[in-house]
Amino acid sequence: MKPTLQLRLGQQLTLTPQLRLAIRLLQLSAVELELEINDAVDSNPLLEREEEDSETPSFQGNDSAPEVDEARPSETLAEPNDAFEETPDFRWDDDRPAGSGSGSGIEGEDREDARAAPLDLHEHLNWQLRLSHLNARDLMIGAALIEAIGEDGYLLAPFEDIQSALLPDLAASKPEIETVLTLIQRFDPVGVGARSLSECLCVQLSLLSPDTPGLTLARLIASQHLDALARHGAIKLAAQLQQPAGEVDTAVALLRSLDPKPGAQIGGSETEFIVPDAIAYRQAGVWKVATNGGSQPRIGINRHYEQLIGKSTRENDNYLRAQLQEARWLIKSLETRADTLLRVARSIVRQQSGFLEHGPQAMRPLTLREVADELGLHESTISRATTRKYLRTPRGTFEFKYFFGSGIATDAGGGASATAIQAMLRGLIENENPRAPLSDAKLAELLKTEGIPVARRTVAKYREAMNIPSSTERQRL
Fold it and tell me: Which of 21, 26, 80, 278 is 20–30 Å from 15 (CA)?
């Protein structure tokens, strides 16, 4: 074969260092981005922090949306309302009498100190155990019992496990463990260390005054008839016990005033705050979007070191030029990231203006591809721009991903998103008869009457996704 020279025309996609940096920064959350910038500023002398003129985010551009009533200034950046809060799993009354709730009654600086350093439940119980003047043997048993108590205040391990945990240092009998557990159950909060809901309520009832109305009947119900009360209600239970309905109602009211999860009063994880990347607000009846200045690091070029370029030794000059190039790439990538997030947020607000105005029931189906086609970007870019990025709205702060989801075709020819269907299901369940909860099949029938054809198994899937128990478990007192 003779050697020949050929010309070929082709295209090849190459990821330049600048493009790699831009992609990496885009997928970072606000916290991770801040850490990345700190490392860059510490390692690159050509980078420096720029002081912010104001903490108020600067509004960049306006986005038109369907005209709505102009919001009052106080409502522009409102906090999340109650409509977006999860329904608690336990359905006892929250207005418990003083002493059985979680309020501490601490005022002034003591309250601030208590909030700043909340006690752990185990620390709180061990502190009381050390003040109980027990012998060394009982203290070891008590420490093992406290270690086996969960966050809600219930004992999670059987006595056999407690005995095994104490070996070989101590061989404790079950009566000994029972005696120490009885003492712990009367620590603060009362009822902690119980092995069941029935025992927890009975311990709290045992410390009430003997002349408390309905106490005797409440003890009987708590010890033997809690399941019957949950299944059949107070009226049928009164007939079963052959007791006047009024007395049973008084006993049930007393039970409802108790705390079914005493351990939840103490400690708990501290609230984590989210800094939104963008803010949606309504001005003059038009929805607009702005980037949050607090989530966008402000860095610039250090002019002192920049002026040294060309005036230093060859080795230092090459180093400064390389660092200057990296600094410019980083600043440019940050600007690109902010611009992409703003464009994606604007698209979301345009697409989901119904949600902003009317709530989750008006959420429309939306996919990453739709936003990518609208903005002329790749779908993977939209995916990176919506992961761990947050949009603050008058209805609360949500991750960008929250506004995306598949939908179901409605009888009217449109589409209903999964979020909208879940909101409708939650509304139906909240308005149901607590003594005759709606089954999944009945919920599916009600949705079909609203023009949303869903199967029973789909209703069950959405209900489980919202952590809502089945109809048999939703029966209330």
Answer: 278
- Residue that is written with structure tokens 């809600």 in the block: 152
| Assigned domain for 392 exists | yes
Cα gap 253→341, rounded to integer Å: 53
pLDDT tens track for 138-176:
999 999 999 999 988 999 999 999 998 888 888 899 999
CA 44 → CA 7, 37, 245, 319, distances in Å?
44, 10, 78, 10
Tokens, residue 120: 């752990």
Would 4 be classed as within a structural domain? no
Which pLDDT value is given to residue 267?
Answer: 67
Distances (CA, A) of 467 to 251, 294, 350, 461, 473: 30, 34, 30, 10, 12
User: What is the model's pLDDT at position 65?
Assistant: 40
Domain span including residue 370:
17-61+273-403
Does residue 414 lie in a domain region?
Answer: yes
Tell me if the pTM is above 0.90. no
DSSP 19: H
Residue 377 lies in a domain: yes
| Residue type (1 letter), 413 | G
| 356 shares a domain with 303 | yes
Measured CA to CA, the distance from residue 393 to residue 77 in angstroms comes to: 7
